[in-house]
Amino acid sequence: MDFNIIRCARTVLHVTDLEASRKFYVDTLGFIETESDSKNLYLRGLEEHNHHSIHLKKAEKPVVEALGYKVSSDADLDALDEFFTEKGFQTKWIKEGEQLALGRALRVQDVSGLPLEFFAKMDHVERLLQRYDLYKGARVQRIDHFNCMVEDVEKAQDFYMKDLGFACSEYTDTKEGKVWATWLHRKQTVHDQAFMNGVGPRLHHIGFWLPDPLALIHACDVLAASGYGKSIERGPGRHGLSNAFFLYLRDPDGHRLELYSGDYLTSDPDFKPIRWDIDDPMRQTFWGHAAPDSWFNEASVVLDVISGKEVPTKQPKLEQRKPEFII
Amino acid sequence: MDFNIIRCARTVLHVTDLEASRKFYVDTLGFIETESDSKNLYLRGLEEHNHHSIHLKKAEKPVVEALGYKVSSDADLDALDEFFTEKGFQTKWIKEGEQLALGRALRVQDVSGLPLEFFAKMDHVERLLQRYDLYKGARVQRIDHFNCMVEDVEKAQDFYMKDLGFACSEYTDTKEGKVWATWLHRKQTVHDQAFMNGVGPRLHHIGFWLPDPLALIHACDVLAASGYGKSIERGPGRHGLSNAFFLYLRDPDGHRLELYSGDYLTSDPDFKPIRWDIDDPMRQTFWGHAAPDSWFNEASVVLDVISGKEVPTKQPKLEQRKPEFII
Amino acid sequence: MDFNIIRCARTVLHVTDLEASRKFYVDTLGFIETESDSKNLYLRGLEEHNHHSIHLKKAEKPVVEALGYKVSSDADLDALDEFFTEKGFQTKWIKEGEQLALGRALRVQDVSGLPLEFFAKMDHVERLLQRYDLYKGARVQRIDHFNCMVEDVEKAQDFYMKDLGFACSEYTDTKEGKVWATWLHRKQTVHDQAFMNGVGPRLHHIGFWLPDPLALIHACDVLAASGYGKSIERGPGRHGLSNAFFLYLRDPDGHRLELYSGDYLTSDPDFKPIRWDIDDPMRQTFWGHAAPDSWFNEASVVLDVISGKEVPTKQPKLEQRKPEFII
Amino acid sequence: MDFNIIRCARTVLHVTDLEASRKFYVDTLGFIETESDSKNLYLRGLEEHNHHSIHLKKAEKPVVEALGYKVSSDADLDALDEFFTEKGFQTKWIKEGEQLALGRALRVQDVSGLPLEFFAKMDHVERLLQRYDLYKGARVQRIDHFNCMVEDVEKAQDFYMKDLGFACSEYTDTKEGKVWATWLHRKQTVHDQAFMNGVGPRLHHIGFWLPDPLALIHACDVLAASGYGKSIERGPGRHGLSNAFFLYLRDPDGHRLELYSGDYLTSDPDFKPIRWDIDDPMRQTFWGHAAPDSWFNEASVVLDVISGKEVPTKQPKLEQRKPEFII
């Protein structure tokens, strides 16, 4: 590989009402609003020194425009362009200056149809990690990962591991030895990118890192007190897989967020991926609770990076399992 | 009133397998085993200086023998005897020495058919509050309250408030102005005794106090790691009513425990009871989650203090509501 | 006794700069500002349904005007007046309406020279316990206790226990059997009123209750980020005595606050007071840290309820000990 | 660079009494004892899948034998050998099998005289991250970093950054622009290796990662309850530098440990090191507390990897500062 992908770094989401989004993300969850105008809202977590990790765009329908990865240097972008082009993927360049605070960016639909974006440069802003006087809501520290539903998890996993250099921390397989879900990382945490078997390509959720479990509990209380009780879709609970203490929320447009704490270090090249049986009840929820149907069935549709149109979804290759057995 | 009831103080539960109970209560949840023999297990929390707050008796069926209240002095017992006898209740004395570590005790079936016990004296033991080296599991500090299902909540409430001197902190009523559930206290916390409309008389759960919310989360993790994932019936969550951060467990015999933290002080005589509408979704679970059916339907049968036989249950006076609207 | 004192309820403090006080108490620590004008600031904690627990008055010098106790009923005030008058104390009535939100109040200098106030009625306001969206800073829940330095602890203790009906939860004595410090309560917590041997009468600190230990740690972070690093005088740490997880702060005028969590229930009349040896290093700070000199030497001067002048202080009866051995 | 250092991975410490060490590390702090014999104790944290991160050897004097780094592959060891040899350093090989559970290891005295060790292979053992039933004491998750006192911080920093490929996250400098202390990392946390100006070469402390702040507070309580109050040297507190919530302990031989939580992600190559002024009071302790003299003056002497003798220490190049201004 001639390129070095650093980490999951930002997402571009379409939302239908920026004021409703601001009330949810900024006023309630406590994301920092770096910048905004009548059509855009740029948000970041408390430890982030990059301009934003969420870009919300006012639009007609709530879809996902891009899943952005930061790469090590500008030259990596050219190497990625060459790699994708050689493989037969159609890439698209966005020039520096076309996107606020970003250097030039490369976009491409990945092997599952997900709208990837790569960039090396984003403007630096003040890191507010020690501005505890500004902490509120969920005290979100930083973006952590993307979790996507795809029709063929093994194909997606192969591509990310063999071609893009991701490592696997944990995975779920079926009795027949088929990979049903997988957790992949570039940075040294459990994941930057997870895939699970389902109607896809769709974004299931974006994960955000919290400093401790009580911040998550407080987030529930603040959400409920602010009238967002129905936004709490699942949790709090402990995932067996990844050991995360989690909470799943739906934003005002239905995009799903995961708030969580409780990761572990995945720096070692000889770390052996942890296998979970799809029928192990502790895999999904260590404490044994079932996920609601909505968590299982609903996810955000993605856009085509070239046409700008919604990417049609397909049925998954493996059998879908009941919510109890999904993560 | 010529007597002074101090607080909810102990419960006598019948269980079918003492070893299974010990593994659950002592090894996993971290209750202190004060004393035991082949037929009895006496347990207490970390701040308790009384001999026990749970007495588990080996028996054929898992039922509730007694709900024990501590009174201020021995003379209060005679006053209570006189009061109940005058009112036409049949009382029963248990002599000092007949029950391990207890002074003489008075038992009586209350107005709803619940097996009450009153005592003034229990042996003192070492308080282990600062023996942090012994802390494990849920770090249970002390017994807090009884919650019982009764057929006529208003009748029960009237008796406890007018005749026994309890105060009400919070209550739920229906659109027709009927009390559907009520939280009553003698000590200065939210409750010693709660009643809710349901098939009764039955003990719904015994509440135990935890030092902080993370102890409750750790309890979930320890239970799951110890094979008790299925014992977690509901939670963690926040009750609107009482503001408790709660977890409901079923012990190996099906008796229900509530672990919780997050009370408030109820010392003021001019504190106005907080009213909750039965249809307020935040009443039961502040964060908006529904309770499982088992939480709504299942509870522990109680014994008759005179005959020692199970007290037959009756249908509740008010309509039963769906689990979403119960606490 | 013909009166029933409920609990430590409010304090009236003189401060020199109301804006500086507001920035510290409201903006940083998160107290709720119930009401204010150019000369007064009325503050309360999140669970308090009474109008205020701190009344800050603009004045030339930072002194203590009153330590206020809530009593059960208006008749208790007359009984207290009679009791104090018979004992030879000079009492002073403040009529309903003279103090904002308060019914009539009785003031008297106690046996140590401390300016006590008793009242039965204070206006009710909205309890904000579940308005988690308003939580900030230290998340202070309610006033908990007064801690005062007096020249003769045994005399003070006798008066409060025998004449006013307080119970003792814990105390410190010297090798000669003299009481060096004592923790007394009316409500069912460790204390409403503590006394320790020292130059007195002075108010050492007012204690406030926090919901959990992380709220206290967050308070440190917020104070530091807001430029109040120097206001943190001692802690966080664990007191052996009372088991409190504590933090001591100095407000902009030097009045001392204690933030803490980690109490226990003191409802039982047969609870035996816990004795601590003055030379036990774990008594003061369970973890073994020494208190700074300022904590040992500095305290707030009090006013005479009749003359309105500062009450002269006297040297304590017992030898003063090094800071390491004080709590 | 032809080698890839992964992370700080283990330390070999000489201790004088293995039973005393076991009581402290295993029984009290809750480290997992992987293996032991009459002369050795091998310990690991709860998330560690490698055999150990601390190797305690019974010896006459408490010194540091090695600071071990894990490298990516066996070939990296040869590349490191070549690199050091070319630079004029004397290296030493330890064959596979000579050290329990380890593959072959390369040792060398670094530019400051510190005894480095590199290895690629260590036996895998069960990861106990989700065995919550085994959690106790401090719930240590994993080794995090080494902090060493050296006479010339700039020289050490240059060597680690330019020759060994470390990146700098934060540093302290003097008014004259001299680097007084520096935080360097290979893995994506704040540090693997910190250097500070002082009598050296000596190991100041080994840092261990905890899952949350309450685990640290509980560690204090457990240590105190187990008779280790005097082992708590400093904290709990918040470092301005690194944002760590910290606790410093001295083991029974005087070796210093840091327990901490509260790091941040350092994955980005364009992360700008954070500069702290040596006179900024919030640098050392965000909340403003001073460190005790012992923390400033005492540290563990290291051994020469060739001779096995103690490495003589030298005075630091820059002026030593008062404890208040050190981290």
Automatic annotation (TrEMBL), chains A, B, C, D:
PROSITE patterns: EXTRADIOL_DIOXYGENAS, VOC. GO terms for molecular function: 3,4-dihydroxyphenylacetate 2,3-dioxygenase activity; ferrous iron binding. The keyword Nucleus does not apply. Its EC number is 1.13.11.15. Its cofactor is Fe(2+). It is an enzyme of class 1 (oxidoreductase). Keywords: Aromatic hydrocarbons catabolism, Dioxygenase, Iron, Metal-binding, Oxidoreductase, Repeat. Residues 7-121, 142-262 form the VOC domain. The keyword Repeat applies. It comes from the Bacteria. PANTHER family: GLYOXALASE FAMILY PROTEIN (PTHR21366). Homotetramer. This is 3,4-dihydroxyphenylacetate 2,3-dioxygenase. It comes from Siminovitchia acidinfaciens. The gene is hpaD.
